[in-house]
Amino acid sequence: MLFSKLLLPTLKDAPQEAEVISHKLMLRAGMIRRVASGIYTWLPLGLKVLRKIETIVREEMDSSGAQEVLMPMVQPKELWEETNRWEKMGPELLRIQDRHNRDFCLGPTHEEVITDLIRNNVKSYKELPLNIYQIQTKFRDEVRPRYGVMRGREFLMKDSYSFNEDEACLQETYLTMRDTYKKIIERIGLDYKIVAADSGAIGGDASEEFHVLAETGEDTIAISDDSEYAINTELLLKEGEDIASLEGKPSPDGKGVIQIKKGIEVGHIFQLGKVYAEDMKANVLNKEGKASTLFMGCYGIGISRLVAAAIEQNNDEKGILWPHCIAPFDINIIAIGYGKDQKIADASIKLYSELKDMGYEVLLDDRKDGYGTKMKDSELIGIPLNLIIGKRFIETNEIELKSRNGDSSTNDISNIKTILDFYK
Ligand code: ATP
Ligand code: MG
Question: Of 57, 93, 155, which is best to mutate to test ligand 1, by the most ligand atoms within 8 angstroms of its C-beta?
Fold first, then answer.
């Protein structure tokens, strides 16, 4: 992509509305723009990152054996009445009417729609287990949308729903999803904790959340410094415990002491059991040929929230430091004197095509600006590797390599393949 052609409105300063670093940087790096409270447009650079996370999630879901579908965003009231959630969800559920005054809502989650699909189309235990997922826009009329896409009203989620014949099979699928979420977050390279959680409006027997650790996290979690013990303090509060007195106390599992940390909830997995299936009469014929209620699990991961969470953990005073696998481009060619010196323009374009042919995603900064402006923009948007073609190139055929994390070296342009291998 040529920088001069890219819709990339970078900003020197973040607008007033932005409080946390990820929101500031997403606006400054021209990734998103606000349309209304909690509702954003994703610009080309932001969308590239969003799609990369989406791809990682899809790959891991597919390899876990889950199947992808796409359910509607607009859902009829009747389905929500079957589970009593038309009332229970309150003002968070955005309700709309069609031209015949029929009631609908914009889906904040999809338990009702998927359960309806399964009860109508799956008849026997022999067709189980099933784990169905989608990657889709959700709408929740949040009381306090804030922090940009971190707590939006409209956001992208991967949600999946498993259907099992009994508790033991549900447990098995649940653990597969738990592993899948670990793989997703580890591929992106984020520091995280799995914590015991409150099941909230979704309900069910037990649930765990995946938290990316960051000072700006909205959740407070209690974790042991020497074991897997971790719990969302929301759950402790519900059980009447006193959080302040927990700090530095021995962990309830007898290993290590408790530390209080802030986390961004990026994923949440639930063992729903029979809650939805009972309300909606979702049965299959069991081994004895009798109707038996399905056991369900549901598993959500916030794709748009993950973009913000990744930035919260990967930034410095200059801008974003993308984990390489989700960077919008692998390489930025910074061509100094592009509009002035034909030799530089020719060499940059040649290098640009070669790198693209090698499979890299490349940005060529062909603007008239000088080194300072170009490098500042590159650092702000967080491209992992810069190749600088300038004066030195004309004299010696050498280009400078500068990685976003500070490494640099000078090399002959003809060695580019070897050099890039080294940088990997
Ligand atoms: P929260 O406690 O942050 O409100 P939740 O418990 O309501 O989230 P779930 O219903 O568990 O969320 O949804 C699954 C995932 O969807 C969350 O783990 C989060 O990553 C994402 N998510 C939920 N609400 C939002 C939102 N308003 N904006 C962006 N992502 C969200
Ligand atoms: Mg949750």
Answer: 155
